[in-house]
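I am going through a labmate's work and have reached the protein record below. What it holds is a sequence and that sequence's fold in token form. Please read both lines and tell me whether the tokens look consistent with the sequence. Do not assume that whoever made the record got everything right. Thanks in advance; the entry in question is below.
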Amino acid sequence: MLDQIAAPRFRVDVPSAMTLRVTATAEATIVAVRGEIDLPVLGRLRTRLGEEIDLAPRALVLDLSEVSFCGAGGVTELLVAASEAHVSGVPFAIAARGRAVLRPLEVLGLEQVLPIHRDVEAAADWLALLPRLRATTRG
């Protein structure tokens, strides 16, 4: 006869493999992510991005240049952030250059949907051009 396995009576906290750094300027807010974007950190990432979008910055750049892993949940969070920024009227761009982020997006064809740039400077330049591009297409 097999004994039932009881759940442990204590909780083991796994150290976060992701850090966030927020830098706000007059032109844009940059949320820099470092480490791994996986299930244990998704809530924290979602909360921080939601808070920054709610503050309605002139533009928001998500810097993923130091991300070493991006799981399926992380990809979903990128789509959610882009959608929430769009609905809120906050210009949004992603800076990413590493395979950990770019490969899953390429496999899923999302590089055609998400505003991805090679670095923060390129993302900021693109965001600065957006108002002019929108004015050209309207008029």
In short: The first helix runs from residue 42 to 54. The helical segments are 42-54, 72-88, 99-107, 120-138.
